[in-house]
Amino acid sequence: ILNVEQSPQSLHVQEGDSTNFTCSFPSSNFYALHWYRWETAKSPEALFVMTLNGDEKKKGRISATLNTKEGYSYLYIKGSQPEDSATYLCSGANNLFFGTGTRLTVIP
Amino acid sequence: DAGVTQSPTHLIKTRGQQVTLRCSPKSGHDTVSWYQQALGQGPQFIFQYYEEEERQRGNFPDRFSGHQFPNYSSELNVNALLLGDSALYLCASSFLAGGPNEQFFGPGTRLTVL
Question: Average pLDDT for consecutive 10-residue bins of chain A (108 residues)?
Fold first, then answer.
């Protein structure tokens, strides 16, 4: 069992603010970390697949970094918009173990 | 190009009954994974099917079983339903089991056990 933890559990930010959240995992035997965005009443949407230590990936205003040696990944959102409101999930061991998510609310 | 589809959307069963949930993967995908998501938790991995065989299994009892068909679609069966089986069941598909490839989720089936 891989203990994947996400923090914070929930977050409220003002429109235009930048924000970030964390996914932590045991650093031994790392294999593929995934980030997802899950909007209410929709399917979880794949954001990034992170495989190598030092990986940095970007999709529009959203980016992610990976540190496998210390066991964490950060997700950054620059200039948050109301449509960014969603739960952001990460998973370790190539989708075998998920965190409980960070619920982001962007206030207009 | 249809994404991952699941049926039914919602289902109500009583304790002791059996249920079958269905999933069609995204076009071009050959691997299907099933997850259970209870309120307040992240998705819990049930099992993964590839080439019509169960490739990996999470910590779920034998009451949970599955099948993958030659067209890559899949079914999740749960026998002897318990109240605790009430959850959102998510299906996800990907290409080439085991590789760090993007996984696409369906909208889920909401199962309520009374």
Answer: 91 97 90 94 94 95 96 97 97 92 97
